[in-house]
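Researcher: Next sequence.
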Amino acid sequence: MSQLVCREIEESELTAYDEMARNSGVIFAQRSWLELLGGQTTLLGLFDGSSHLQGIFPIRVVRRLGLKALLRPPATPYCGPYFSEQILNSRSALQSCRFFLNGICDYIAAKRPAVCCLTFDPAVSDALPFRWNRYK
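Model: Next structure:
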């Protein structure tokens, strides 16, 4: 497995995001869906050593009554994560998924939200990084 990095997607990488969201076959990850519902959505990405997008995870950061909350986007049953075919078909798919979930945990910890309510794609069967970081 090459070196993987989890970070926010930059403006120049939105085309790659759109392509991966379309290829995932799930409308809820597509920017057209997320923009339709309004609100501030942050797009997290999993990148390989060559800076190619390998995974995506949309998350909404809001402030309510002075408290920061990290939520799934409105009218969206789950956030993901969604992966490229290259990751899904590799021997290290589970390891890559865990790495991405760890990166999401680190992102959440850095934002220091009062409330965090995320729902994962039913295809994600291993959420151990969240258990290890004491999320319920």
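Model: Residues 93-111 form the longest helix (19 residues). The chain has a mean pLDDT of 86.
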